[in-house]
Amino acid sequence: MPSDAPERPKILWLARLERRFHSWRERRARGRGLVPTATGFPGYGSEEWVRVLGRVLIVPAVKRTSSGEYSSVRGWRSFAAVPVAFAQVTVTIEGERHDVRADRGGVIDTVLPARLAPGWQTIMVAVEDGEPVESRVFIVASGVRFGLVSDVDDTVMVTALPRPLLAAWNSFVVDEHARQPVPGMAVMLERLSREHPGSPVIYLSTGAWNVAPTLIRFLHRHLYPAGAILLTDWGPTHDRWFRSGQDHKKTNLRRLAEEFPDIRWLLVGDDGQHDDEIYTGFAIDHPANVAGVAIRKLSPAEAVLAGGRTVVDDHSAAEVPWVTASDGAGLLDRLAAVGIAAEDDTEK
Fold first, then answer.
1. What is the pTM of this model?
2. Mind giving me the DSSP string for 11-52?
3. Segment 124-135, tens digit of pLDDT
4. Which residue from 100, 113, 121, 21 is spatially nearest to 55, judged by alpha carbons?
5. N or C: which terminus of the chain carries fewer CB neighbours within 10 A?
6. Which residues are in the Phosphatidate phosphatase APP1 catalytic domain (predicted)?
């Protein structure tokens, strides 16, 4: 007699191997007396719910300077921490406790009910009854109609990804303090954020969650506006060797459109990592949710290092303002010309 039970999905052998490897690392770390800690990443929400982001890790100690900054943090340290799979996590919001579970990579990504005032708010995150740590969420007021979504690699930070050898060098060897911002982008994003008080800022990247603390410090150090960060996991999935960065971006853009149907987003990216193509498709499918698109044009050298350009020549079907320039200052001028940014009175 045939069984009615659903067939269990076949899990890629590499994913099983990765899980066993991390389990072995976790047992070794716990055997040395190390304990898991929760790290909260900036999230976002409405006046009725919050999307809580973070990760549960067993982290090796890192030296700090007298000012509290991390001293000579090489990229490999971001990948040395041990992710704790399926850890039990307690999230406390305004005194109310919520028990959630991290995924198999230790990532916390969950939506919880909450009634918080608009703006940045603090919540608490703890793992295994340990000491709670603070995390922040940006609450979007119901009347907000504008938001910013920005790519990271080669849009706010010069990374020369995804060429494999350079990617490995930048990710694992380069001191985080040596990473350079893209000229003018911090000023552009900060000015747009000030012109639209209460607007959410989302940094949407194909980068790994391992680099989230480094990215947060980079954004703060170079005066980018504070915002939620949406990264991904570089590891294998149950059915493929590596996660799709394009799917990650498309999924989160669609999610933002569903969560904030009245917000029109300015989408900021570059022409080296499919942003042009992804934003074109999103603008065609969700024209009411797009205020405009700003694409940074990579220099010829950057384009070679990034593996070429992915430019969509025809944006007519998108029916939204579309601007391009090589840096933030040029993009800001063009955004002002199409009415998305205010004119700079100091130049008159």
1. 0.84
2. PPHHHHHHHHHHHHHHHHHHHTT---EEEEEEEEE-SSEEEE
3. 999 987 889 999
4. 100
5. N
6. 146-297
Instruction: Give domain limits for the chain.
Output: 13-24+36-139, 146-347
Q: DSSP label at 95? A: T
* Separation between Cα atoms, residue 186 and residue 192, nearest integer Å: 10
Fold type of domain 13-24+36-139 = Immunoglobulin-like (2.60.40)
Give whole-number Cα distances, 150 to 46, 123, 236, 294, 296, in Å: 20, 25, 25, 9, 11
Question: How is residue 11 written in tokens?
Answer: 């899990």
Residues of the chain with pLDDT under 50: 1-9, 64-65, 67-76, 163, 165-167, 169-170, 172-173, 236-241, 348
Rounded to whole angstroms, how far apart are CA atoms 322 and 331? 10
End-to-end CA distance of the chain: 83
Over residues 312-335, the pLDDT tens digits come to 556 665 679 999 999 999 999 999
List, for residues 68-108, the tens digit of each pLDDT value.
Answer: 444 444 444 555 678 888 999 999 999 999 999 999 889 99
What's the CA gap between 269 and 48, in Å, rounded? 30
**CB count, 10 Å around CB of 281?**
17
Burial class (CB in 10 A: 0-12, 13-18, 19+), 167: middle
> CA geometry: angle at 267 spanning 264 and 269, to 5°?
175
Cβ-based burial of 174 (10 A; exposed 0-12, middle 13-18, buried ≥19) = middle
Q: Tokens 């490999």 correspond to what residue? A: 76
Partners of 89 in beta bridges: 100, 127
Residue range 146-347 forms a domain whose CATH class is: alpha beta
Angle between helices 328-337 and 185-195 (to 10 degrees): 40
Please state, in angstroms and rounded to a whole number, the distance separating the CA atoms of residues 225 and 68: 21
Cα 128 to Cα 34, 71, 86, 91, distances in angstroms: 13, 29, 11, 12
d(CA 340, CA 116): 29
Joined together, the tokens standing for residue 316 give: 């007519």
- Residue 151 pLDDT: 95
Whether residue 36 contacts residue 84, with contact meaning beta carbons closer than 8 Å, is answered with yes
User: 76 is written with which tokens?
Assistant: 């490999």
